[in-house]
Input
Amino acid sequence: MKKASIILDKDYIIDRIDPRIYGSFIEHLGRAVYGGIYEPGHPQADEQGFRKDVLKLVRDLDVPVVRYPGGNFVSGFNWEDSVGPVENRPKRLDLAWFTTESNAVGMHEFADWAKKADTEVMYAINLGTRGPEQARDVVEYANHRGGSKYSDMRIANGRKDPLGIKLWCLGNEMDGPWQMGHKTAYEYGRIANESARMMKWVDPTIECVACGSSAYDMPTFGEWEYTMLNECYDNIDYVSLHRYYGNPTGDTPGFLARSMDLDGFIKSVVSICDAVKGRKHSKKQINLSFDEWNIWYHSLEQDEEIKKRDRWSQALPLLEDIYNFEDALLAGSMLITFLRNADRVKVACLAQLVNVIAPIMTRNGGGAWAQTIYWPFLHASKYGRGAALRALVNSPVYDCADNDAVPLIDATATLGDDGSVTVFAVNRDMKEDFCLDIDLRAFGPLQLKEHILLHHDDVKAVNTEENPCNVAPTAGPGGTVDGGRAQIRIPALSWNVIRFA
Ligand code: AHR
Output
């Protein structure tokens, strides 16, 4: 058996893990809202039309924050369309996805859903076709106690207490030429600055996320961050990052190594934030909101056909990627990467949550089930709380198309507030099991409590409504703990959660 080792120490802490790194995202896109979280008439629908089977799957993930209502959608969205009596709300053409938005679910309904899902709303404002004025108004509507035009409008619409939304996205991917109201970095930096200032004058307790590049490989990457941060540094709190990976050529080792690109992306944005900090002689640190991350490629071709065929229809089955086992492994490594960067990544949103590139799938009128990527997310969210440990990992490496020296064992660890230690590890080796030697001597007497394993012999295995547990966690082979050294067997191609208490 191959060997790898990890040395852990309770004093080697990266930072406390912000629970919001286990956030997610619901956009008015495809069947995320209509047919996803909301399906009146469905046997599982509650009195408001929210699917209880979906709520249960979401609650089990323990998602602290859900970004809403977009995404690309938000760059043409008028928040006022989504409040007030439903029968008076306009139907709008959505130029982001070429569908029609009914506005049947709006701000109040989504806030109600979030409460039922035990989560908080992270609200994105439109800085594409709109500007600081509407940004100010929507904060007043959502968060002001009353006695002003928009707060009184909220009260008249049936909600006396403020919604208390704490985290606000200043637009979405404004560097992207596909975006309605796409801007240059300078234009965006100015509008983001003025919006954030006015929003915080209305409610000084909110935090604001400025749009970073929509991807690491955008031609404007770097220059965008630097220029826009120069304009809005003092008034914003986070820079957003978005990243999706795919494996169209079926190169599994190369695909599993993509989390190294993610790490490089994070480190580059941190450097740019700190460069602007230095230039400004500022004491303030800007952290990162990785508010869109996932695997996205399975549905791309199919979506082009659907969009051509059914332009302007409602709730089209768009971006319905069916995730396989190797996708779950990469999702696991992406989560490990966020933990390793817990000192700067304070928010991260798995994009998205239901039906649209999502861990949860539904059939209209039918069941709801967990896709493969649901499991690493659930494990990290459940056990990856407390402090992120600086794990010293020693593993054999491999070279692949885009990366050299990729560790075969990708691992990190967390220290729970109850003194428990959890190791998260992906074995990227296609064939061989590993013996993972974990040095836990610094923690006193710990016992192996549980080894959770996600493995399938077929990297392309998927879950379906008929076979929802095809790729599901099982008990791992575990191992021994002796004198503060654990020896755990990590099967080839697997996601592992090793819990010590
Ligand atoms: O999550 C799907 C889309 O990906 C979002 O609408 C957009 O922000 C990104 O390009």
